[in-house]
Structures are given as C-alpha cells and as structure tokens.
Amino acid sequence: MRWLRPLAITALCASIAACTTSPTGRSQLLLLSDEELNNMGSQAFSQYQQELPAAGQASQRYVQCIADAVVAELPQAQQQLDWQIRVFEEETPNAFALPGGYMGVHTGMLDIATSQDQLASVVAHEIGHVLAKHANERASTQSATQLGLSVISSTAGIQSEQLMGVLGMGAQYGIMLPFSRRHESEADTIGLQLMAQAGFDPRASVTLWQNMQKATSGGQPPAWMSTHPSQGQRIDGLEADMNNALATYEQARNNGRTPNCPRP
Predict the structure, then answer these.
(1) What pTM was estimated for this model as a whole?
(2) Which domain holds residue 107?
(3) Is residue 9 part of a domain?
(4) What is the total count of domains within the chain?
(5) Which of the residues are catalytic?
(6) DSSP of the chain, one letter per residue?
(7) Does 117 fall in a domain?
(8) pLDDT tens digit string along 27-51?
C-alpha cells in the first residue's frame, strides 16, 4: 500500500547512517554523495543549454544580480560553489536550480515576476531545493524503494530524461517534472527566509503567486491531482510564515542589505 512507503523509509533512516535532517528538521534518506549529485547537476545543465537558446545580456545581468544577492546569504559551503546562472529564451514561466550550483530562469518567468522582489522569491525557492538536497532525497527514495539498496554510483548510461526527472526538471524545453508537495512547500519556507535575509521584500512572494494564478486561470488541475500544492495552498503557506520573514527582512534592511537590480 502507498502508506507503507513512508513507513519503510522512516525505518530505513533509523537503521543506517544515510539518514539526516533537512534545514527545516525533517528526516531524509540521502544515499548519494555530493560529488555524485553535483556531476548529475552538471550533466543536466549542459543538456539544457544545448536545447534552449540563451537570452540577451540585459536579462542575464538582471537575474545574475538577484541571484548573487541570494547566494551571498547561503551557508559557506554553498557560497563556495561555482554558481552558474543562465537565462533561457523560453516563454514557459519556469526556473530551476541544480546540485553543484547551476541555475536557469526562463524569460517567461520575467513576465510573471514583475519586480526584483518577485523574481527573488523564485530564485530563493529554487535554491531552497538545493539546500534541502531534494534531488538526493528523490533519487535515494527511488533507489531504496525500487532497487532495494542499490545506490546510483555513476551517471554513465542514465538517459537524459531519466536524469532530469530525478533532479526535478524536464528535458523538453522547461516542462518541469515536479518535486513532491512536501518538497515544494519546504522550498517555499526556505526560500522565503533566504530572500528576506538578502533584503528582498518577502511579501512579493505572495504577489508572485497571485500573478501566477491570473496567468494560469482555468488551466490548473485540482491540488489532489497534482504533485505540486495548489497556488492557493502555496499562498496560505507563505502567509503563515510571513511574520518571521518580515522581521528578518527589516533586520536585513537595517544592516544595509538593499539590493537594487535594474529590470531590463
């Protein structure tokens, strides 16, 4: 039964050293090394760059400015990654961040995120996936439940669509294979604090999802049919954490964190 899977993973976590906790304190099963995940991220990013054209330099500078401000608030180990930020010419409003410090944003997202603060909420959310090692958890859970305890030890021989699926992204021009609802909600929580620490207004995250609601009105399936939380659920979750985020934001502004990234 479906409910047996989380019980099995919990029991496995309790018995092996691969069990750890996420930034929010949630138990995780992580069987892959950072080196393995980073290699997978590099391979997927290279594949993506082959499939989509790069956007203009003005859009690149804009997104880079926002990403730099958020990355500056990461733990030291993640700051030291060679973060590579690319803007892709694609109308689908998507973005992603991969293990190893690779990030992509579609120009379609710039149409939805109409301010630097709104786009910062997207960037911080995607980095939240990396901080919480959701790709590792996804791959490890699949490995433990479908292949016993056989761990993916090399990316050799893995098809690009399989690789991108494990990493939570799609091979076809930005059609994202979603993380679980739990992962998405956790990335929202982490991202909200990250953007606030960087001096971006966390209230813009709610505006972003309101914009997304308008853009996808009539086209979104019910929440129970999707692995993503509904847009309304995401807004509710963000608002529940907003007081703490606003306090962080005010402190960041008082400490001189006032990012100014000109929109092209």
Answers:
(1) 0.79
(2) 18-254
(3) no
(4) 1
(5) 126
(6) -TTHHHHHHHHHHHHSTTEEE-TTS-EEE--S-HHHHHHHHHHHHHHHHHHS-B--HHHHHHHHHHHHHHHTTS-HHHHTS--EEEEE--SS--EEEETTTEEEEEHHHHHH--SHHHHHHHHHHHHHHHHTTHHHHHHHHHHHHHSTT------TT--HHHHHHHTT--TTTT------HHHHHHHHHHHHHHHHHTT--TTHHHHHHHHHHHHTTTTPPPGGGSSSPPHHHHHHHHHHTHHHHHHHHHHHHHTT--------
(7) yes
(8) 877 878 888 888 888 988 998 899 9
